[in-house]
Amino acid sequence: MANIGYGVVRTLRRQMFNHLQQLSLAFYDRNEVGRIMSRILNDVGSLENLLSNGLLLVFADLITLVGIVIILMTMNLELALITMTVIPILAVVMIIWQKYSRTAFLKVRTAISIVNANLQENISGARVIQSLSREDVNFRRFDSMNEANFDANVSATRLAGGLQPIVELLMGAAVAIVIIYGGSQAIAGKLLLGSLVGFVLYTQRFFDPIRDLSVWYTELQRAMAGGQRIFEVIDAKIEVIDAPDAVELPTIKGEINYDHVSFQYVEGREVIHDVNLHFNPGETIAFVGTTGAGKSTMVALVDRFYDVTTGSLTIDGYDIKKVTQESLRKQIGVVLQEPFLFSDTIRENIIYGREFATEEKMIEAAKAVGAHDFIMRLDKGYDTVLQERGSNLSQGQRQLISFARAVLSDPRILILDEATANIDTQTEVIIQQALKRLLQGRTSLVIAHRLSTIHDANLVVVMENGKIVEMGNHKELIEKKGIYYHLYTMSYAYNDDKAAPTDKHGTT
Ligand SMILES: Nc1ncnc2c1ncn2[C@@H]1O[C@H](COP(=O)(O)OP(=O)(O)O)[C@@H](O)[C@H]1O
Ligand SMILES: [Mg+2]
Prior knowledge:
By secondary structure, the protein is of the alpha/beta class. About 60% of the residues lie in helices and about 10% in strands. The protein has a six-stranded mixed β-sheet with strand order 6-7-8-3-9-10, with helices on both faces. Strands 2-1-4-5 form a four-stranded antiparallel β-sheet, covered by helices on one side.
């Protein structure tokens, strides 16, 4: 029994994990981590009892029930039918009860899921919470969610408990009917007293499996509430999928073309409006614009983390919707402002996804981005195990590791989304030199705040509210004295006063 029960639990978790890995980023935008975790752990756990103990017992109960019914009927058909008149009443009670219990059990599942989501956020955000002294407020919030969870459990249990007395009551009623009816027959001499006593004893046995079954029925309702939530995950639609006739993207040169691309994260709120762009292979393109202009979105579309809503995006003439995601992403390297490192050694983190890479290649990549030195200074060098998300490294060091990861993967297209935000100017110079060499023959899309990166770009794309407002190289755009010029004087003048065309106060 345990084997089958836990086997089902294991299979469900496996399917959920596998599905979660394929679900598009849009799913993760919509669902909190804690709630997803709750579905995999708690909701699946709610099936454990039913599956590992219930199934066989229910089966046994059903067989007993059938056996007793046959015995009762052969003993005295009339009395047997009278006994069973309570069954329809029980059925009606169950149907009504089920309606309420389903809601109550679902509430239990939601309540614990809310507690989990809140926990997850508070644990991950411990630093921010402590720095803003929000402990008290958050504690009160947690307390109220915890309380709601308690309430939900108590009222569900109360409801579950309520079914038993009703079953007992009906059982008593049935015995009473048998005794009254059978008794009068015995007095009339139509029935032997011994038969009546025997029948009453069997009637009691008749209710044993029913009592048991009603307990398992409660358990079933509890499990169904969990099951519903499990299948919401397993059935969640994967938005970005390989087309049935998707082809392998051959080794690309890196030509990117946006053809009337529009995009919306949420229905009805377009964030990229009808963009047309063309990048030649090997070019460095810098995206510039105020926060929220749509820069990150523009580059995320290239990696097909989201599908364009209308229009098309082609790489080397291939519509990226028509090639396999794997062959596409293998040729694109991404470095983000918040690099994600895994709780593993530095070596494993660098070769993540490129497990076949040799030790030399790995070290070469680390050297290329200037990470080798600091790694060697660590106690265990490349074998240093990172704590969660690399919290035992500085932010800049984490970025260097994710740079090494991108370099090792030798991508045709490199996407840097504010990737140098936490790296000091000196290290950036090292990376810039390394990248210059590495980017030969590669297309790179760069979102950066540092002037040096933008200076060298072949093309600067200026975005505002999801539209391209200016395009050209740095020099042309400065001369144009348009939006770029204003952005540049406003945001860069302070950081880089030597290169700034205006005085430090940004008065133009
Ligand atoms: N995951 C998301 N879900 C919904 N809206 C989003 C999401 N990410 C970004 N946006 C919205 O899209 C717009 C562009 O965001 P983004 O591309 O991140 O800007 P930038 O990188 O230029 O600062 C913003 O208005 C932002 O609110
Ligand atoms: Mg951004």
